[in-house]
Structures are given as structure tokens and as C-alpha cells.
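Good morning C.,

I know you're traveling, so I'll keep this short. The sequence:
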Amino acid sequence: LLCTLIVIVFMVLLICSVYSQEKKGDKYLSKGQKKKRDYTIDTAWQGVRYAGALTIPFTPQYVFLGYFLFQTPMGNTTFLFWVYLVAIFFPLLGFNNACVYFYPRYKAHRKSNEDKTRFHCVCDTLGIAWKSTWTKGANSETEASLSEPLVDGSNG
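The C-alpha cells, ready to paste straight into the viewer:
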């Protein structure tokens, strides 16, 4: 719990730092030019995603801590339920961090390739090669079929 709070505090400090840098740039704006806070907003959302990715896998441990601190007995069924959640969510910490890490790349790739589907943008971002036959807005069944990998699994 303390680690999550420390992460949140440092994310707030990072957001404040980015905001102050953008605010320093305001003196170079022309009259009537709108102040932009794109980096501050992007940093804030990245911080929220990171704090969420860190908090979700540790939620069952927080529940155990709550039961321990309040000295409330936990039933056997409830205990097993939370143990299963720990077994499911704790290994997902790396997956959640990967999602947080790759999201800005996906967002930029999606913005520059609006004709591609979300699936193709995810594959491109992750470096997975797919033959580009499945495009957004395809009408016929042959155009809308799933893409085939560029490299087949055969050794021949």
C-alpha cells in the first residue's frame, strides 16, 4: 500500500514538473494563441494508467491487509476466493505494465494509420507481422477475412 502511495506521489510530482515546463513556454506565445497543455494531459493519463496497472494486481493483498489490520476473521471460502485472485492477478503485473508502456506507441501509430484496423495497429506496435488484407471498411467477405501471417510455420 505504501509503494502504491509513493508511486502516486511521484506521478503527481512528475505532472507538476511537466505543467511548469509548459507554463514556461507560454511566454513565447503570440497574442490570441491558445495555451496548450497536451503534454501535461498525456502525462497525467499515463500516470493514471501506471497507478492502475500497479494497483489492480495488488488489490487482493490490500484486502488481506485490511482483514489483518481490523482483526476480522476471514471464512475459508472467502480466503480461497482471494487466494485464487492473487494467483490470477499477480502474474498480470507484467502484462499491465506492458499495456501502459505500449499504449503511447499504439496511439501514435493509430493516429498516423487511420485506414488500418485496431487489430493491425496493435500488431504493428508489438512488432507482429501480418499480411495487410484486412482493412477498415471492407465490404466483401474476402476482404474482411482474417489476415495470414507473413511467415508460415512450415519448415519446408
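Safe travels,
E.
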